Amino acid sequence: MNETLITVPLWRAAHGRTGDKGNRSNISVIAWHEDLFAPIVEQITEAVVAQRFAHRRPSRVQRHLLPALQAMNFVLDDVLDGGVNDALNLDSHGKALSFLLLELPLQLPAHLAPLLRGHGQGPSEPDRHHIPQETT
After folding, report:
1. Alpha helix (H) ranges present in the chain?
2. Which CATH number does the domain housing residue 66 bear?
3. How far apart are CA 121 and CA 51, in angstroms?
4. Domain that holds residue 55
């Protein structure tokens, strides 16, 4: 039996954090739920990340899996225009690079949709994008 697939941006299934060391960027991807980790690992590969950052011309992309944390860390070499002291761009630390990665499309079986974040999705969790209005 074929299950229906849905396509969502990666940020609906995971969050990220970016760090830097010299001209190297580290981008972590952490699944919101353990059941989302396997499809993320399957689809967000070194090759996919290298393609996503092709405009930054990484000399190497490595992926380190951390299954106990439902996370992975990507190390991208030579993507920060020389690093903090040499770069002339506005984001010399590369902190915004995780957002570029988290926009990647991710295909998931439809039964995993309740585990996603954003727009009121997720098991018994409030919509994090909703700002409650005061009532008088």
Report:
1. 34-43, 46-52, 97-102
2. 3.30.70
3. 29
4. 5-112
pTM, entire model: 0.77
Q: Measuring CA to CA, how many Å separate 6 from each of 15, 44, 49, 72, 128? A: 19, 16, 21, 22, 21
Contacts of 134 (CB under 8 A, 6+ apart): none
Tell me how crowded residue 123 is: count the other CB atoms within 10 A of its CB.
8
> One digit per residue, pLDDT tens: the chain, 136 residues?
578 999 999 999 999 988 766 777 889 999 999 999 999 999 999 999 999 989 889 899 999 999 999 999 999 888 775 545 444 354 444 456 888 899 999 999 999 999 999 864 444 444 444 344 444 4
